[in-house]
Amino acid sequence: MIEALSFGFIQHALIAGILVSFAAGVIGSLIVVNRMVFLAGGMAHASYGGIGMAVYFGFPIFMGASLFAVGAAMLIAFLTMHKRHRMDTFIGLIWAVGMAIGVIFIDLTPGYNVDLMSYLFGSILAVGTEDIYFMAILLAIIVFVITFWYRDILAVSYDSEYAKLRGVNVRFFYTLILILSALTVVVAIKVVGLILVIAMLTIPVYIAEKLSTSLLSMMFISGLIATLFTLTGLWFSYTYNLTSGASIILVSAASLGLFLLLHKNK
Question: How far is CA 119 from the centre of its chain?
Fold first, then answer.
């Protein structure tokens, strides 16, 4: 693996893996404590609508997926602000409609045969410089938001009614969490694909939750764990010529199983 570090695409993959892992660790923690795990899968599949539109209209696929996912996040925020118990219904609807829109636009694109595998299971080895810039900017925004509004986000995540009584703008922070979740899901698709994105956002968080004493420490620990899983998965992928996204998730799942076994015996 050491000799592989001389290749530009491997360097890009490592940088992208670290950036996305920390973003997934922070946002995954918010998704879990807000009980919105289903949201990750919904956003991932809905963003396929943006991929299809980007292919049809000829603009960057990353941009198309991001815009579509953010639009879906804002729609979900509007529909579920006062009806969080119905969130699974709305997410399921947007999930299906987004996928359908993507498939239709790709069908309408003349002479284009999209490589579905790269979106379903990720293509981290194909990450470019522009993708890394996007991931770095997103992580910087996430860190900025958590740094300046941590207490407000904490209050909204655990008790929105109490947060409202404290004068916190619950609607704004709820929508902000959903938008950042949507963008994180989009960049995670580049690493593990839309089918496996839920695992990347939840497995490290589950382990970190058992090892942390606060939301902030859970975010940091889950980011470190996600990074470890991603780098180990990349090593397996390169060494044994396996799909990178699937390798990362299998490493994560095996580590979770080992953790549960050791934790149970304590």
Answer: 13
pLDDT in tens, 113-153: 556 566 777 778 778 888 899 899 999 999 999 999 999 99
DSSP string, 103-153: HHHHHHSTT----HHHHHS--GGG--HHHHHHHHHHHHHHHHHHHHHHHHH
pTM score above 0.85: yes
C-beta of residue 81 within 8 angstroms of C-beta of residue 174: yes
Query: Could you tell me if 204 and 191 are in contact, meaning their C-beta atoms sit under 8 angstroms apart?
Result: no
Domain that holds residue 253: 3-264
Total of domains in the chain: 1
Distance of CA 219 to the CA centre of its chain: 14
Q: What is the Cα 125 distance to its own chain's centre?
A: 18
CATH code of the domain containing 188: 1.10.3470.10
CB neighbour class for 45 (10 Å; exposed up to 12, middle 13-18, buried from 19):
buried
DSSP 214: S
For residue 53, what are the CA distances in angstroms to 67, 98, 136, 257? 10, 10, 25, 39
Distance separating alpha carbons of residues 230 and 226, to the nearest angstrom:
6
175 Cβ neighbours under 8 A, 6+ residues apart? 73, 74, 77
What confidence tens digit (pLDDT) does each residue in 165-178 have?
Answer: 888 898 899 899 99
